[in-house]
Amino acid sequence: MDQKEIKLMLGIVIPNCLAIVIISSMSFTMSQNHNIVWLGIVLLPVLMGMISQYYWRDLKLTKNDYIKYHLMNLAVASFWSWWLIGREL
């Protein structure tokens, strides 16, 4: 694997791992406090996008490449959400 592929993979794996940790730690508090749901709905995807962009910032990607990799990131996050947590989009 070359450096570009490694950075692309890190831009997908690291944000999803962080999301799994945050959602797992929030699962108990979400049942008791409904205001924390906004963190999972709004702030977590924004944070995941910012982390992905951090790893992808120095790659020369076109707009179509960014869209493709963000959709791939969305697919991975949706899979983990469905498989681990039992939530649906």
Number of helices: 3
The secondary-structure element order is: HHH
Radius of gyration from CA coordinates: 14 Å
Report the uncertain regions.
Answer: none
Percent of residues in helices comes to over 70%
**Topology, number of strands:** 0
Shape: elongated
Largest sheet: none
**Which structural class do the helices and strands define?**
mainly alpha
Mean model confidence by pLDDT: 79
Beta-strand proportion: under 5%
Query: From the structure provided, what is the oligomeric state, counting identical versus distinct chains?
Result: single chain
Total domain units:
1
Distance between the ends: 33 Å
Description:
By secondary structure, the protein is an all-alpha fold. The protein has one domain (3-85). Helix content is 80%, strand content 0%. It has three helices and no strands. Helix 1 (3-30) runs antiparallel to helix 2 and helix 1 (3-30) packs parallel to helix 3. The longest helix has 28 residues, at 3-30.
Helices and strands, with pairings:
Blueprint: H1 3-30, H2 37-56, H3 63-85
Helix pairs in contact: 1-2, 1-3
Search tags:
89 residues, mainly alpha, 3 helices, 0% strand, elongated
Summarize the structure.
The protein is mainly α and 89 residues long.
